[in-house]
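We were asked to recover a plausible sequence for a given structure. The inputs and outputs are reproduced exactly as logged, with field labels preserved.

PROBLEM: sequence recovery
POSITIONS: 506
GIVEN STRUCTURE:
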């Protein structure tokens, strides 16, 4: 009795009676279409591009290729996901669909020169690069908001913190432009990852390629890749770019967003009261009705924790050298798609939050005045006016600060007599700093204005450096636009090639 399946009921290449004698246990079945996740559209595009290449190279009959390409377009009319879920077959669902529709003599030709290896690798790389590009666009969207708003907060003086302690005066605008720098580096990392991911494994099969003369460069172009991966074994067995590196740069990005959220969560607290969030980004308590819980900030931190867990999973799965097992690959992909979706959502929300964030400048100034953030400026005045060594000035002001706290005297009420008293305690003589110099050193607003150095918090420095950040943002946005244009061009080229083969007008 023939073992060949009836085409209309074709269930895939792994059926009992061929190589294996039993049907696979359902829980171990890997070729289930719902397991493709975000790679499904990429698998569909690969099916089309591979058929075009096979026909152009004369590796399959042009008529058979045209029939199959028409079949894939019919699938699109039904809905790619719906059709592939219906016929099943996972990454081989295109072949399964075509064999059922056209018979094995036609539909059975699509897999020439391919393997589950390059099918999965192409799907994973396309899905990863698409997520990277969307995330890059959303990073730029948030950078644009920060660049627009930072000048409005250039003179909003606030305490800078180290070790959660009041450190030096800065401004809320200076804090905002710090994130322009951070997000600029995140952009660079994701862009570099994109460029490494955007090379094509198509034609590498499972590691040694094919004896048929596949045109790997043509398939790469039709899939929107920059070039083929130059080594067939590397294309299939190495996943450092689309798995480890992609998960790594995503983990860094989400960790940066979590650090930003951590600052805002502290400043949103009742005790700080520096900032206020719109109510739609907050929750409340079922028992403590006074609560306004910053859910957006907590969700932003949770995405970082999720990504870090995914990174650990990726490194554990990738520690082998004999290829990526199906179960492990699915774990990595699920973690990647989930973390990308979370990061993209939080970036969108961050744009809204910052546009509507309320900043309490009076409260910020009150706190920066109270806890000796000006201490380094007083020491600087002793260096500038009295010529003291920095360390001597530092020690004298340390004594001054301690005595101020012991006597409950706030910084702005400090006198030159108190400073001389501290100097006598330190090295036995007064320093004689002028009252004008002490008053200027104790004013946190003047402290900020004096720091005009490159990258400093002075409003004039912030606006000067903002021009540099904005120029980089424009360059980065231009790269995204060019990358989008190339992707669209190759997609049009693929459809035009299909039109020629099926005899439809382009």
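RECOVERED SEQUENCE:
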């Amino acid at each position: 009795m023939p073992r060949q399946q009836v085409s209309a009921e074709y269930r895939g290449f792994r059926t009992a009676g061929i190589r294996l004698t039993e049907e696979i246990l359902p829980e171990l079945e890997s070729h289930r279409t719902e397991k493709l996740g975000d790679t499904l559209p990429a698998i569909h595009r690969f099916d089309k591009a591979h058929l075009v290449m096979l026909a152009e190279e004369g590796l399959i009959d042009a008529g058979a290729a045209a029939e199959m390409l028409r079949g894939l377009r019919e699938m699109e009319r039904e809905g790619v996901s719906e059709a592939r879920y219906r016929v099943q077959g996972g990454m081989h669902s295109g072949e399964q669909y075509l064999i059922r529709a056209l018979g094995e003599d036609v539909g059975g030709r699509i897999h020439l020169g391919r393997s589950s290896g390059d099918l999965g690798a192409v799907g994973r790389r396309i899905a990863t690069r698409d997520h990277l590009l969307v995330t890059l666009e959303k990073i730029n969207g948030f950078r644009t908001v920060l660049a627009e708003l930072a000048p409005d907060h250039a003179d909003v003086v606030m305490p800078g913190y180290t070790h959660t302690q009041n450190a030096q005066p800065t401004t809320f605008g200076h804090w905002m432009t710090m994130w322009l720098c951070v997000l600029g580096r995140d952009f660079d990392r994701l862009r570099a990852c994109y460029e490494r991911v955007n090379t094509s494994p198509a034609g590498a099969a499972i590691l040694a390629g094919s004896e048929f003369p596949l045109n790997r460069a043509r398939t790469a172009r039709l899939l929107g890749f920059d070039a083929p991966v130059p080594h067939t074994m590397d294309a299939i067995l190495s996943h450092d770019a689309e798995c480890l590196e992609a998960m790594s740069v995503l983990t860094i990005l989400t960790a940066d967003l979590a650090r930003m959220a951590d600052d805002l969560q502290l400043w949103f607290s009742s005790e700080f009261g520096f900032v206020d969030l719109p109510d739609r980004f907050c929750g409340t308590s079922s028992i403590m009705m006074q609560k306004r819980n910053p859910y957006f900030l907590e969700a932003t931190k949770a995405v970082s924790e999720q990504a870090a867990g995914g990174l650990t999973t990726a490194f554990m799965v990738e520690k082998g050298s004999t290829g990526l097992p199906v179960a492990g690959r699915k774990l990595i992909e699920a973690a990647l798609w989930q973390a990308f979706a979370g990061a993209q959502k939080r970036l969108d929300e961050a744009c809204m939050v910052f546009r509507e964030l309320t900043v309490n400048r009076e409260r910020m100034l009150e706190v920066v005045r109270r806890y000796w953030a000006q201490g380094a400026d007083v020491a600087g005045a002793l260096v500038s006016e009295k010529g003291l060594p920095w360390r001597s000035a530092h020690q004298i002001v340390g004594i001054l600060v301690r005595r101020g706290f012991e006597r409950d005297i706030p910084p702005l009420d400090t006198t030159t007599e108190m400073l001389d008293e501290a100097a006598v305690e330190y090295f036995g003589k007064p320093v004689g700093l002028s009252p004008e110099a002490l008053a200027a050193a104790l004013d946190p607003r003047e402290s900020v204005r004096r720091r005009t150095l490159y990258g400093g918090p002075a409003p004039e420095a912030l606006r000067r450096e903002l021009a540099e950040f904005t120029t980089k943002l424009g360059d980065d946005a231009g790269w995204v636009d060019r990358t989008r244009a190339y992707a669209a061009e190759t997609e049009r080229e693929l459809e035009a090639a299909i039109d020629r083969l099926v005899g439809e007008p382009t």
